[in-house]
Task: inverse folding
């Protein structure tokens, strides 16, 4: 065999090995995305009122991918950024009927249904975003025991994290609602969940 | 002695840089660019964490994915290795080649480019993978391998004088080769533009299928295909020009270029019409970097022949 042929065979072997390596890494990265949104816990039962007066319970989460957050309308720091980010996600996933958003107020004394209604019209462009209120003690319990999020010194002490919940009411992951890279992550995790069916 | 030393270090730097482009492409197609949310450390550590407990309290562990972190960090580590390799090459150039401006400047330029691209890597992360900046990061890497290829072939000529004698370079070949290189650079910019736009559209429309993404692109996506076929014809013409009166090396190189362009067209069509898009994308990008370097090498073997 000539030395050129030998070199060619070696080159092809090397490219083949690199290709296999690339394939392995890409596959591993894809699988790691699914592993990385493992089940953290189960959403407990709750009963809250939407801004349009309808009662929303945990049954609303059945068969939908839900993004849940805690906010209040008079909040000037994190909430507008969080709501703006959720609004962007709502727009980007508008063509899917499998996604919904729930924002629960931590200031039910001030946030009446009318005020929530007005707040909703500032951010939401589709009827898949619920702005919910309920008894403050229920909200604290739901935040702390249901979603494992701190709820001290309400209303301002609410967590700024977004919770990703799958179609079987499993809590899958938390995202800092004000951090762009976290929203980026949330977006790709929603796609991963959607692709899983 | 110094000639051989520089040639070896330039060759190693070039090969490592090509591997780096491959690994960088792997980071992009596997979506691992945010595997480490900070830079240059990864989750505040010089060795990426292997479990979530190792993440310091001030860094949010939300994005932690051990696989993606190590893929991204692999790119950075290889980048550091390339950096050291180019530093060694530059030291040799400064010590022994102060009077050879071709060697000296190719070394200094590669040092500048590798440093600049490392710094740009930090901006890639802080921009949350802005597609423009990611593409710029790739284009700078193409410049780097171009300069390194140039340095490598120039130093190869110093130690293999006899291999390059008594061959004439016609104007026709010179112009055709320069045109081929220039058009390939334009072709790469078009391809990068397509990729950038696909990513931008995909961020705003995460539910789009591949077909919808392609439909949403401007019509210049066709320009990429048309230019691709033009390049193929140009390379066939060059093969014809090289048909007899050249030594083996140049002829092998032009056939190689022809084969690479053919392969690139094949990979491009494969991406549009079939699945397995990530691996195909990786090799399509990597192949383009090969073409840029190989044409520079071919041209500079010929330039020598002319003088």
Result:
């Amino acid at each position: 065999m000539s030395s050129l042929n030998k070199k060619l065979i070696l080159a092809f072997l090397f490219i083949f090995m690199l290709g296999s390596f690339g394939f392995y890494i890409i596959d591993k990265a894809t699988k790691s995305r699914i592993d990385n949104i493992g089940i953290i816990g189960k959403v407990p039962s709750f009963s809250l009122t939407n801004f349009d007066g309808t009662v929303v319970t945990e049954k609303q989460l059945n068969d939908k991918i839900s993004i849940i957050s805690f906010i209040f309308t008079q909040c000037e720091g994190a909430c507008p950024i969080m709501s703006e980010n959720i609004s962007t996600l709502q727009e980007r996933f508008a063509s899917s009927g499998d996604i919904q958003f729930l924002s629960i107020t931590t200031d039910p004394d001030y946030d009446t249904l009318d005020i929530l209604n007005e707040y909703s019209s500032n951010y939401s462009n589709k009827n898949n975003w619920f702005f919910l209120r309920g008894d403050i003690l229920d909200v604290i319990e739901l935040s702390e025991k249901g979603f494992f999020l701190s709820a001290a010194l309400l209303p301002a002490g609410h967590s700024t994290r977004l919770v990703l919940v799958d179609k079987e009411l499993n809590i899958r992951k938390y995202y800092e609602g004000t951090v762009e890279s976290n929203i980026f992550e949330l977006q790709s995790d929603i796609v991963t969940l959607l692709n899983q069916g | 002695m110094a000639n051989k030393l520089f040639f070896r270090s330039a060759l190693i730097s070039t090969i490592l840089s090509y591997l780096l482009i491959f690994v960088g492409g792997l980071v992009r197609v596997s979506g691992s660019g945010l595997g480490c949310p900070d830079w240059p450390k990864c989750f505040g550590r010089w060795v990426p964490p292997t479990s979530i407990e190792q993440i310091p309290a001030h860094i949010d562990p939300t994005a932690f994915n051990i696989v993606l972190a190590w893929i991204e960090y692999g790119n950075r580590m290889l980048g550091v290795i390339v950096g050291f390799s180019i530093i060694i090459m530059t030291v040799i150039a400064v010590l022994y080649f102060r009077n050879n401006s071709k060697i000296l400047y190719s070394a200094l330029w590669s040092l500048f480019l590798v440093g600049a691209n490392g710094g740009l890597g930090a901006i890639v992360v802080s921009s949350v993978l802005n597609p423009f900046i990611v593409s710029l990061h790739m284009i700078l890497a193409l410049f780097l391998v171009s300069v390194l290829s140039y340095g490598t072939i120039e130093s190869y000529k110093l130690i293999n004088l006899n291999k390059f004698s008594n061959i004439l370079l016609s104007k026709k070949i010179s112009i055709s080769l320069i045109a081929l290189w220039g058009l390939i650079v334009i072709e790469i910019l078009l391809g990068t533009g397509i990729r950038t736009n696909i990513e931008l559209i995909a961020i705003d429309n995460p539910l789009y299928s591949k077909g919808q993404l392609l439909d949403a692109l401007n019509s210049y996506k066709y320009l990429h295909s048309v230019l691709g076929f033009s390049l193929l014809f140009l390379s066939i013409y060059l093969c014809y020009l090289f048909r007899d009166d050249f030594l083996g090396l140049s002829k092998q190189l032009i056939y190689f270029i022809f084969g690479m362009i053919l392969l690139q067209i094949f990979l491009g069509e494969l991406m549009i019409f079939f699945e397995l898009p990530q691996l195909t994308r990786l090799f399509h990008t990597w192949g383009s970097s090969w073409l840029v370097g190989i044409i520079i090498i071919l041209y500079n073997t010929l330039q020598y022949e002319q003088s």
Q: What stands out?
A: Chain A has a mean pLDDT of 89. The radius of gyration of chain A is 22 Å. Residues 175 and 186 of chain A are 7 Å apart (CA to CA).
